């Protein structure tokens, strides 16, 4: 595309691309933005090195002129976007990229890959932490996702309220708190469960989490309290009917005097399972598979579309809104602006998108787009703590129907205001 | 776990871990192994560098003794496995890792991450290429998966019969043939569709694929043939009812004399859509989202379990089979061996797994486990061409019911033979 656009003299036309969801996954009431920080890191490192250029040259993918252009590639345009942790709805213009057609179009795959996966995990994680209430959720899904995706998933989950991850690389790379428990193999390695527990308690102290379902849960709990006393930190249950088992284990722990020993449950948990356990005596959830696969929706289906471009290569040429008409996939042309509209009680009531113009808001409207990149420089400063707080605050502003786990529509409508008419 | 096992003197016990699926995803008749080559690469690079060690030290994740052990870590054991492209069934022992407990247990996450995702994509891809028959499938899902997962997905799809990928990095890294088409943005960039097509034809030649559904498909096809003549390589349709539209476009192309111009379709294709298009005049499928998310099953749910370990730290100590009893998650202890059993017509009739002993096969049985690593050295030599052929041959040997897209059981049963009793 870059090569052909160079041939037709259109490659340098000033262009606006928009990254947005056409819709939410079926049944979801809202989505959660994640990946912004990773996308900015990727943009900073978006270079074509010797190996990449050699491949493109040797396989005649592009001409020498395009090779030269790629070798010098630095994004020099502007980007606005929803910040990380923000809530989004169908049509929310999550990222707006302005630059020459060539420099903006080649970012498509990198930006979509990051946003599509990270936001899918954050959106699922948000529903899980919502259902968990005050009980902590621990991310434990690394084994069930691609090895690099897993690190991104831990980060996205943390943004959406998870308290820690078992992924040490995510701890190292992003400063996310880490936590973990022993596997069944550790118990099986030893000649008896008692010896395994003794070894773990010796090294980790009495505050550790002992896994109690390798053989008989009742025996394991008795052994655990026998060895650690009432200071035992927690036990983990990873199988069976968790609600019933947690009740039995709680009763047993209490009878043994271990009234403060917590119960952590794991085993294919998702937001519905977590909700179903809300009345059970459970103190924390370890969530793996269903988190890293977005609880049934492992990609957000975000797209990256050209919505406006200059009428000519003249830097001052007027921007023309453009849109495809493809059946079922038509796009809304024109640069977008976005505000969240609130009622007088501070509850969100609409996602208002201005097409070609800033929406005429009232004083309660909150602008959603922030400048991320200015003339090629990344200007957005953010950290995971701010993103976590943004997610918490954004969720708190939504109507209570956002908490519904049943099938239904987005919790607020998306309204368009246009000056192109 | 390593630290506590060191404390109890069990870390050096010879151990056997097994990577296997408890079951196939609901409705699937078979699975396809992928990720072996990537896992071997990861194993070769499995080192703890200064940054990793500093993180573990600074956060007191492990003791100085374990840090020293990690700094010197090299896997020194043995690994056997199903080769890439092989078919698998519930319980198939896809990878068997033998080494000390410590050195084998810390590979769990890396091995599972690779196998769980790559095999999920290959298993979905196999159903798609099966439904596509002689028509080529092109991998186009990079934008809908994590940026690194996307490269792995292109590789897995290629193993399972896809002919090419739009992911240039997968082409560079793994030598997979690459292909691509223009996006709607390229058409929208130009002042008219005709100018966009002219630009693409100038650069790519008449053999290119023109995207014809940005505005009116009928007009676009007329323009395309007007510009390129009957030598036009292909048109791509990305929206609407693909079966009906392909029929209309075929009739129009034929009427215009472009009888050899191919029709490529894209737009949320999966194995059922591809099957439903088998009678439509379609010449190739571009598959994106549903491929990289495993067509509804983005992870295989493989687990990595300790199945046997030495009775003591003595290198010559007898191996003891071990198994957890956890409700619904019980494992089968003991070292596994695996054969595929055939009837007299050469059709597979069972997956035979020997527990603690090589199955007593007949002359038609085919052993499935190959030595991948010997005393820490990667000895398995394989390439993607061999993996593709293995997939093709493995599929050809299955009963015809393997082709069923309806819900159902694995196409052959898994049988266990045991000497532990």
Automatic annotation (TrEMBL), chains A, B:
Domain of life of the source: Bacteria
GO cellular component: cytosol
This protein's UniProt keywords: Glycosyltransferase, Ligase, Phosphoprotein, Pyridine nucleotide biosynthesis, Transferase
All residue ranges annotated as the Nicotinate phosphoribosyltransferase N-terminal domain in the record: 1-114
Catalytic reactions of this protein: 5-phospho-alpha-D-ribose 1-diphosphate + nicotinate + ATP + H2O = nicotinate beta-D-ribonucleotide + ADP + phosphate + diphosphate
Keyword Ubl conjugation: no
EC number of this enzyme: 6.3.4.21
UniProt pathway annotation: Cofactor biosynthesis; NAD(+) biosynthesis; nicotinate D-ribonucleotide from nicotinate: step 1/1
GO molecular function terms attached to this record: glycosyltransferase activity; nicotinate phosphoribosyltransferase activity
Post-translational modification comment from the UniProt entry: Transiently phosphorylated on a His residue during the reaction cycle. Phosphorylation strongly increases the affinity for substrates and increases the rate of nicotinate D-ribonucleotide production. Dephosphorylation regenerates the low-affinity form of the enzyme, leading to product release.
GO terms, biological process: NAD+ biosynthetic process via the salvage pathway
The keyword Transferase is assigned to this record: yes
Pfam families according to UniProt: NAPRTase_N
Function of the molecule: Catalyzes the first step in the biosynthesis of NAD from nicotinic acid, the ATP-dependent synthesis of beta-nicotinate D-ribonucleotide from nicotinate and 5-phospho-D-ribose 1-phosphate.
Family as reported in the entry's similarity comment: Belongs to the NAPRTase family.
Protein's name according to its UniProt entry: Nicotinate phosphoribosyltransferase
Organism: Raineyella fluvialis
Organism lineage string: Bacteria, Bacillati, Actinomycetota, Actinomycetes, Propionibacteriales
